[in-house]
Amino acid sequence: LEQDSVNIPFLKLRVRSAYIAGDYQNVRIPGERLIRLQETSLSALTQVVVAYFNLKLYTDCIRVCQYLIAQGYAVENIFYFEAKALARIKQFDKSNELLKTCINLSISKEAEMYYYNLGINYEALRQYKKAIAQYDTANYLFKNPIMNFNSGRIYEINLKNMQQAQKYYTKYLALAKPVEADEKKAYQYLKERWGKKKPVAPKK
Asked: Where are the domains of the chain?
């Protein structure tokens, strides 16, 4: 490094060795040189991000995160450290937005079907509140209105709680865009029965 201070492989090695040793101060100079050289090594620069965070240099941590994102590295770990650094400087709204991005990146679309099938299984076991909890989770994560329909159906048919049933059906009717013939038929039925009704008092 004394002979060639812009030798990228050596700079990356210097970052890694200092990082592994927990010598975060000595991650800074080679890390900043990599950025000036427009190096985009995700591994080395992630170590720079973590070093800045551990040194409580939160604005520098955010800057390096944003550099990586601008270079096309929109990955969960980078968003997470930027969110943590933003929270430390009390920019909580921005931090929350990035944490929501992390959630979307970390949960695969297949998870919706897992929650849906958990709900079906709990229904079969007559554990209706647990079934509704699975449908609620699937709806929260993936915004699929059919999950509100499923919860409303349980409240109406199994739990005989018409007030809760209407709450879920109203959410379903507000968001659903049925395509299949069976769902269109169910949607029309619900719209006629529940669409304009006032809240129903729960049965005693």
From this structure: 8-106, 110-194
